[in-house]
Design a protein that fits this description.
Largest sheet: 7 strands, mixed
CATH class of the largest domain: Alpha Beta
Oligomer: single chain
CATH architecture of the largest domain: 3-Layer(bba) Sandwich
Radius of gyration: 23 Å
CATH superfamily of the largest domain: FAD/NAD(P)-binding domain
């Protein structure tokens, strides 16, 4: 099969790939120079919409409504946008072999793609229960959520199992967001996770207590400290029961699994330097191989604010790292320079009528402020993290745009902390004065 050659290739079809394509266009890429290769069948889209809006019972998000770059207030890059810009959008094409020495990618169909400059934007893939050897993990109606075709299958299952029972395995982002949207679809939901509280990588026990109480008030049952170890099925292969390690069994018409993700670095093993599970880059997202850049979830990069190498799985970093890499490519070609990537970690979520944002680092002592009663009509509360006498992180539920900007500034500036009691008393006022 004849090969194709491009000056630039973006490998991946997620958020980072879409934002990279937009930045290439801004930088003046010429028609025919750039290709975007994705194994998905649709142009890049804002992945968070799958867990936040796609499953709504009414007014659900649908393509083309959430193609990139609407998630950050930009124009939607519809498939025809790529055509208009002379960018080759190569969909439904899985790359199975990459050779950085010969600058060649090979697809599952045997087609070869040559490049001069490569951006690796392969993202993450979900961890599956079969990865842990869970018995019956291949039963029907067990769902994961990473790509749009998986979301479509879950939508169909929700319709087919109207007023049915769902077990959500995992208490992180996906577990919390999907438990909420399943309840909104009038599904009976039980959430199961092994940790002592939900979202343990970010939440403290006091933050988690609010969300667990709020979810229970909405009818979500929560079982902590155990894991799914197997599934019983109906004769048609559909899941019937979830067996837990503590001996309990839960009836289920639908099982949704959100137990984490792993970066898709396999194609480049042994060819580029890795660190902390990701592809190691500098502050311009250059890898150890000349002409090869990497962005988004797959990257371990210098987090300047904390003077350490870190990997960040989040849409905000996917967008910003993609833009930085493309700017760096063009600066390199012109012999100019750009500023190093200086990222402020940022995470957010929306579920039910809740909306939280977090900025910075969640290390050190903590101070809770505001009203974190799950039954409160306002439920506005937050938390500061304090290390070495400085405020290094801030969390806020139900903040206004101005209040969210204030906590972001606190995390960036890292002002000296007051006494813990004084911080608790001042609450948001402390942030607004920075």
């Amino acid at each position: 099969m004849a090969g194709k050659s491009f000056k630039y290739v973006i490998l991946g079809g997620g958020v980072a790939a879409g934002y990279a394509a937009r930045e290439f266009s801004k930088q003046g890429v010429k028609p025919g120079e750039l290709a975007l290769i994705s194994k998905e069948a649709v142009a890049p889209y804002e992945r968070p919409a799958l867990s936040k809006g796609y499953l709504f019972p009414e007014g659900a998000a649908r393509l083309p409504g959430f193609h990139v770059c609407v998630g950050s207030g930009g124009e939607r890059l519809l498939p025809e946008w790529y055509t208009e810009k002379g960018i080759s959008l190569i969909l439904s094409t899985e790359i199975v072999e990459a050779d950085v020495a010969s600058k060649t990618l090979i697809s599952a169909a045997g087609e070869s793609f040559k490049y001069e400059v490569l951006i690796i934007a392969t993202g993450s893939t979900v961890l599956r229960l079969s990865d842990f050897g869970v018995q019956g993990a291949d039963s029907k109606n067990i769902f994961y959520l990473r790509e749009i075709d998986e979301a479509d299958k879950l939508v169909e299952a929700i319709k087919a199992k109207k007023n049915g029972k769902a077990v959500v395995v995992g208490g992180g982002y996906i577990g919390l967001e999907l438990s909420a949207v399943l309840r909104m679809n009038n599904i009976d939901v039980t959430m199961v996770f092994p940790e002592p509280w939900c979202m343990p990588r970010l939440f403290t026990a006091s933050i988690a207590a609010f969300y667990e109480g709020y979810y229970e008030n909405k009818g979500v049952k929560i079982i902590k400290g155990t894991v799914a170890v197997g599934f019983d099925t109906h004769p048609n292969g559909e899941v019937k029961e979830v067996k837990l390690k503590d001996g309990r069994s839960l009836e289920a018409d639908i099982v949704v699994v959100g137990v984490g993700a792993k970066p898709l670095t396999t194609l480049f093993k042994g060819q580029v330097e890795e660190e902390k599970g990701g592809i190691k880059t500098d502050a311009f997202f250059k890898t150890s191989v000349p002409g090869v850049y990497a962005v988004g979830d797959v990257v371990t990069f210098p987090l300047k604010l904390y003077n350490e190498q870190r990997r960040v799985e989040h849409v905000d970093h996917a967008r910003k790292s993609a833009e930085q890499a493309v700017k760096a490519i063009f600066a390199s070609e012109k012999g100019t320079s750009i500023d190093e990537y200086d990222y402020l970690p940022y995470f957010y979520s929306r579920a039910f009528d809740l909306s939280w944002q977090f900025y910075g680092d969640n290390v050190g002592e903590t101070v809770l402020f505001g009203d974190n009663d799950p039954k409160s009509p306002t439920h506005k509360f937050g938390q500061y993290w304090i290390q070495n006498g400085k405020v290094v992180g801030a969390f806020l539920e139900s903040g206004t745009p101005e209040e969210n900007k204030a906590i972001a500034k606190v995390a960036r500036v890292q002002p000296p902390a007051l006494s813990l009691d004084e911080m608790a008393n001042q609450g948001l006022t402390f942030a607004s004065k920075i």
